[in-house]
Design goal:
about 400 residues, alpha/beta, five-stranded mixed beta sheet, homodimer, 13 helices, DNA-binding, Nucleotidyltransferase, domain 5, Arc Repressor Mutant, subunit A, globular, about 20% strand
DNA sequence: CACAATAATTACACAGTGTAAATATCATGG
DNA sequence: CCATGATATTTACACTGTGTAATTATTGTG
């Protein structure tokens, strides 16, 4: 009489169990059983299997009540994964384990106008250094993930207009068989913030995660859907003001032309790279002049306007915002609400829309990509890509 | 060595087989086997089961080649389903079978400003008449579907601002156990046009289906996802012109204020209800004056602008448009492209975005809802809601 | 009317998981 | 220190769903 209705392949079951562990950061069996909707019997079988493959560990830790479980199940620290992040000003490589530890990081400056060939060269160099590091230690990477701003499985990227087929071919070649997932930065960010056990998150339930940085991008976090199926919402090039400011995309009046990091850093008079590297309240601490504050509020208003338009298209009842707006004083953020009030159907109403802010985690790259790599490893059940006996043709479903 | 990788419950397998039949309108076994990714052996078992329950029929029809299949499998004509459609000017009830035949229709005028209590009264009356009809014939409805403009599982409806919980409670009560699915009209429309075997459809693959009527709504048709998970895109209340025309929603400059049926019928000088009831090319035939044509082109431009914004948010490579724009002369429709060119990232490019038009199927209500009811019946495997032995709690996954 | 070609059915094996019985572990109290 | 109660963990067995392969059916052709 379990709560499930669809049988699962072994791979799926392993994936469900491992994903539960990734989210919780470690749990006792009864909890895993509930989370994965399996009986203790099945948990027992699966864990035995996973322990044998050194994917999980059971550390002796008796629960503090009579008859309680005796061992805490955690993801193994012996599986190496790699996260690669192309943020707008640098390319970072990292190696870590499933438990969230990062053992190796290398970061190289990368221009926001990076050409594909330059990227390939840069990537090749970093990879070589990394391979040296792993080689020396006899480590083999089980899963890698690369996050790119604007990436989508469709061939359209507003930020890097590269040939995705060529990109995938290049990566497949240089990575020599290491499984690689490519994803949109905003998905990796959202997943990391929402599901990594190390971070606090302001809300639960489906919502829009919005990141305002070089671009303006969001993703609808659907709590019941797998992260790798999330589809990004590229808000930056919504035209919110006909014949408005010129945008780098060639159009006029795009949201990005008003609210990107570049646009606001110009207003503040501080280098882009400086703004996000500061902590929460940084802008408040700056004690900006009144006209600067007013300008920023105008930009936040426009952000709200565009956000409202996006929410009209695809309604959700809460939004989490990360990026420079999160660094603004609470009072100033209200300008977003005013913008929302002009576009969101029915006007802004705090009973119908909950807005939260989280500090941007800049400087932690490639933490999000690393998390995403762990997620992908776990989603595959910790099995090689084609290890499933019945799976021959069917990756396309 | 099949192409599948996930085991299925009996319910799922039945659903897959039945859905294949619904889409094809009838097929020989080898085709079903390929479509459902099952062996002939499994098809045999499933069909035997379904035939026993009178959900499918096998009519003797030898394929015209040696050793070919001998019977054509079709959905049974003995399963009664009901489709209920609330278009903006009427409420229509229909009863039909899985093969697409419609046996009963009743239509009642309904104001676009219909209040919830009025709806309940109207619905009650129509239902009573329908129940009389079914009662007289000893027919019992296996699945009903109701399509409402603007409906979403969230509690926000731009068109009818009703209490959805109350609506569901009301419907559950009056329908006395008949399973009911509620969906957004645009989903039912899209599904009907795309998948019903009776209609031709201009494209294949993922795309945006856009309907421009009283409102402006779309849905991303994801060919690999189940229809009932499609999420509607309510385009109508995107603010495309700050401080523009007043919209009925209270905001200014919404797309709907420019491109809804109401807005354009005012330009043409013909009652709303007349416009869509005409066939393709109707507007061309009208021989409108030059300034009217110009105005309409302006509206199409704005539609393109809003559409471009939506596509920036969620890129797809083709769009199918239904509604009054489909009735416009081909040359005039190009105004949409001009609008797209100003908002769609990278400008409009026919290699990257394919635009198609299909005639709006007004006057066929509740055909789309009826199709959706058939879809829901089939998706449930033709089983009672809770018949699955292992399924007790788990409808929420 | 036998044959070739494919369709349709059926016996059997195997994967995955639940049930329930058997066994293990721990805190507590004598 | 040991029996006890409480819960955890493992294991034997049964059941579902499906593929494989052998068997039987159907049909056009020569």
């Amino acid at each position: 009489m379990s709560g499930r209705f669809a049988p699962r392949s072994r791979r799926e079951t392993r994936a469900v169990v491992l994903e539960s562990l990734l989210r919780s950061g470690g749990a006792f069996r009864p909890l895993i059983a509930r989370d994965a909707q399996l009986t203790e019997a099945s948990i027992s079988r699966i864990l035995t299997e996973l322990r044998g493959e050194d994917i999980i560990e059971e550390i002796r830790r008796p629960a503090p009540y009579v008859g309680g479980p005796t061992a805490l199940v955690t993801l193994s620290k012996n599986i190496a994964i790699a996260g690669i992040e192309l943020s707008n000003d640098r390319l970072s490589f990292g190696i870590g384990d499933l438990a969230g530890t990062i053992d190796y990081v290398e970061r190289m400056p990368a221009s926001p106008q990076l050409k594909q060939s330059e990227f390939e060269r840069l990537f090749g160099n970093c990879l070589a250094t990394m391979t040296q590091w792993t080689g020396k230690r006899g480590i083999s990477i089980r899963q890698a993930a690369l996050s790119i701003p604007g990436y989508s499985s469709a061939n359209t990227n507003p930020i890097f207009t590269w040939d995705m087929k060529r990109l995938r071919a290049f990566l497949a070649e240089v990575l020599e068989g290491v499984p690689l997932s490519i994803t949109n930065s905003v998905i990796a960010q959202a997943a990391f913030h929402r599901y990594s056990s190390t971070a606090a998150y302001p809300i639960e339930g489906d919502h829009l995660f919005l990141f305002v940085g070089h671009g303006v991008a969001g993703v609808v976090v659907n709590e019941t859907a797998p992260i790798d199926t999330f589809s990004p919402f590229e808000l930056g090039h919504m035209v919110i003001e006909r014949n408005g400011h010129a945008c780098r995309c060639g159009h006029k009046g795009c949201l990005e032309a008003y609210t990107s990091l570049k646009a606001v850093s110009k207003i503040i008079g501080i280098a882009e790279s400086e703004v996000l590297h500061q902590g929460d309240g940084f802008i408040e601490a700056l004690d900006l002049g009144d006209d600067i504050r007013t300008s920023l509020r105008e930009r936040l208003f426009l952000l709200g306007l565009g956000l409202g338009n996006a929410l009209n298209l695809h309604p959700v009842s809460s939004v989490v915002i990360s990026g420079w707006p999160s660094l603004m004083p609470v009072g100033d953020r209200d300008a977003i609400l005013e913008g929302l009030d002009e576009s969101l159907l029915g006007g802004f109403d705090q009973d119908r829309l909950k807005l939260s802010f989280i500090a941007p985690s800049i400087g932690n790259d490639p933490q999000a990509a690393l998390y995403y790599a762990a997620y992908c490893f776990v989603r595959g059940g910790g099995l090689e890509a084609k290890a499933e006996p019945q799976a021959a043709l069917g990756e396309n479903a």
